[in-house]
Design brief:
Elements (H helix, E strand, L loop, with lengths): L6 E9 L3 E5 L3 E5 L2 E9 L3 H12 L9 H6 L4 E10 L5 H9 L3 E2 L14 E4 L11 E2 L4
């Protein structure tokens, strides 16, 4: 029997130069150059979700399901690292709350199905992610 890994993840993202992107119903948003953390969850298979995000960031994603898809498609945007916490629990909002204390939120981004202010934050760097209980994650 194959075990499906489930959990919460953070994408460590670099925006190499400022970019304006239309993000679904949020409309046109400006993303300044710098570091961003996107908090997500995948309770039906974290590896497949992360592979999908990487595929989208490399220009091969064809479907737009989430706000993050719009951002990852921009050529100025790159996923630097992946961090995860394997769990069966819905902890995405708790992690978003923790990251919000260390970063500036992009209001309404990635949180249309919860009460969070955002699930995307502009941060000074990514060093804090392991202190939140997340581990670096590498795809084969």
């Amino acid at each position: 029997m194959i075990m499906v890994k489930k959990g919460v993840y953070c994408l460590a993202i670099t925006v190499e130069e400022p970019v304006d992107i239309t993000v679904g119903a949020l409309g046109r948003l400006e993303f300044l150059s710098g570091s961003y953390v996107y908090v997500g969850s995948a309770l039906n298979g974290i590896e497949a979700r992360l592979r999908r995000h990487i595929k989208t960031s490399r220009g091969r994603g064809e479907t737009t399901h989430w706000h993050i898809d719009y951002l990852l498609r921009a050529p100025e945007v790159e996923i630097e690292d992946l961090f995860v916490k394997l769990t069966d629990l819905r902890e995405e909002c708790e992690f978003a709350d923790s990251v919000s204390e260390l970063g500036k939120p992009t209001k309404g981004f990635g949180c249309s199905d919860c009460r969070c202010v955002s699930h995307l934050f502009r941060v000074e760097g990514f060093d804090f992610l392991p202190r939140l209980g997340l581990k670096p994650f590498y795809l084969d």
